[in-house]
Amino acid sequence: MKRIIIALAAVVLSIGAATAQKYIVVDSEKIFRSLSEYNGAMTTLDAMAKDYQTKIDTAYAKVESMYNTYVSQKQSMTEAARVAREQEILAEERKVAEYQQSVFGNEGLMMKKRIELIQPIQRRVFTAIENYAKSGGYEMVLDTASNASMLYHSDSVDHTTKIIELLK
Fold first, then answer.
1. CA distance 85 to 80
2. What pTM was computed for the model?
3. What is the spatial distance between Cα 55 and Cα 107, in angstroms, rounded to a whole number?
4. pLDDT of 107-165, one tens digit each?
């Protein structure tokens, strides 16, 4: 009986060892921040976003000014003039909102510029990670930058610096 239990335990342990996966952990955010071209692209995108946001804020301030002027003059206006001014203000507000969407929306200018600047860098980094994993015989790569549920990992499985060195 004792031999059967020992044999069974050995079989279970050997199955567990045979199915164990080799994995590594990387911090893609740290890898990206280590690349000067990524930092340059982010600086460019931030400057563009700031410029566009200033234009949009100015346009909304104009709409607000139009509205405040309307409110102060509303009592002395005819009904037709009030309706016309309200329509003008609403049209201007719609125009600014459409411009904002064309710049910051999912298919806006900023998204297109981000894809243009960042996507080649992302491809390079992800290809380097994939090649590193394949050459090391790793079956899985976990990213600590995007995995909010990872509570702990050993430094021995973190290969971030090796990937950074590979990219330089």
1. 9
2. 0.73
3. 19
4. 999 999 999 999 999 999 999 999 999 999 999 888 888 766 766 766 777 788 888 88
